[in-house]
């Protein structure tokens, strides 16, 4: 099975380096390790990831929306923030998984796979809602 390609985005430099090393040690491929201050200068089209892993102490909806809409990939948010309104805003912004706890490498692969499947389901739902009556070409 090919390694999952992860784009790591964090709001803390030291933690980003620690998480990146932990991911690499646990057989993940980290294709980008960005902190929020570098997010605006990164060429989005160069990102070749399967999933975005956001790790934020204080998730902000505008940052989450920017990541979700710019990258258009499954997005998993890890945070210590269990505030109900923050969770709702993150889900509304397009996060496919909101995890309140640390990143446990033993559980991470399953969490990422679930997030990818949720994202695929969301894409199918979005396509159906955009074109609820597909045009069929009948044979002549």
Topology of helices and strands:
Blueprint (H helix, E strand, L loop, with lengths): L4 E6 L2 H13 L3 E7 L15 E5 L5 H11 L3 E5 L4 H10 L3 E4 L4 H26 L10
Describe this structure in words.
There is one protein chain. The chain has 140 residues and is an alpha/beta fold. The protein has one domain: Response regulator (Rossmann fold). Helix content is 43%, strand content 19%. The protein has four helices and five strands. Strands 2-1-3-4-5 form a five-stranded parallel beta sheet, sandwiched between helices. Helix 3 links the parallel strand 4 and strand 5. Helix 2 (61-71) packs parallel to helix 3 (84-93). It is globular and about 50 Å long. It starts with a strand and ends in a 10-residue tail after the last helix.
In summary, what is this structure?
This protein is of the alpha/beta class. The protein contains four helices and five strands.
Class of secondary structure makeup: alpha/beta
The profile of the biggest β sheet is:
5 strands, parallel
Strand order across the largest sheet: 2-1-3-4-5
Number of strands: 5
Question: What's the CATH topology label?
Answer: Rossmann fold
Radius of gyration: 17 Å
| Helicity range | 40-55%
Terminal Cα span = 45 Å
Number of domain modules = 1
CATH architecture: 3-Layer(aba) Sandwich
Q: Helix and strand string, N-terminal first?
A: EHEEHEHEH
Modified residues (4-aspartylphosphate): 55
Domain Response regulatory: 5-116
Pfam families: Response_reg
Keywords: Phosphoprotein
Which features would summarize this protein structure in a list?
single chain; 140 residues; alpha/beta; Rossmann fold; 5-stranded parallel sheet; Response regulator; phosphoprotein; Sig_transdc_resp-reg_receiver; CheY-like_superfamily
